[in-house]
Amino acid sequence: MLPPPEPSVRRSSFVLAAGIVLIGANLRAPITVLGPVLTDIQTTLHLDGAAAGLLNALPLLLFAVLSLIAPGIGRRYGLERILAAALGAILVGTLLRSLWLPAGLWIGTILLSAGIAFGNVLLPGLVKRDFPDRAAGMIGLYAAAMAGMAGLSAGLAAPIARLPFADWRWSLGAWALLSLVTLIVWLPQTR
Fold first, then answer.
1. Between 29 and which of 94, 137, 153, 164 could a Cys-Cys bridge form, CB atoms 3.0 to 4.6 Å apart?
2. Any idea where the domains of the chain sit in the sequence?
3. Which among 63, 64, 2 is positioned nearest to 30, based on CA atoms?
4. 93: helix, coil or strand?
5. What is the pTM of this model?
6. For position 110, what pLDDT does the model report?
């Protein structure tokens, strides 16, 4: 029987696991928040149905394209670093699409979708590598965080937009806080 891991190993495993779950929480919320406020966005920015449809479809198009190159980039530069860059893209994209209109809506959606695409592809490999005996449980945990935050972001989008001081930009931008916290938790993994 192996001796129990040292406290620093247990602590670093806990921080890694927390980072993985938090990354999972970021992989759907910035996308699912869009639907409930899309009509408000269309009205404010005078988007027709085709433009609104494209805005909604952009994440899926980018997932399809970027998932082909993400593994090679992850191998070349390291999973932890690319996941940190992906979180940075999600953070900056979330802020851009809520603050800089109308171009920021498009550029931000592209950026955050690219970050999410890399996270979708690289996170399972990192889990299998770093938690080989607990991969299924860890993937289940971060998938639950992903689904929970997706539902939460969609459910809170309209109420946030209806606050007296807010509009749809607040609904989209609120999720930057989650990305920022996740990036702070994740950065030690890049060393």
1. 153
2. 30-190
3. 63
4. helix
5. 0.91
6. 97
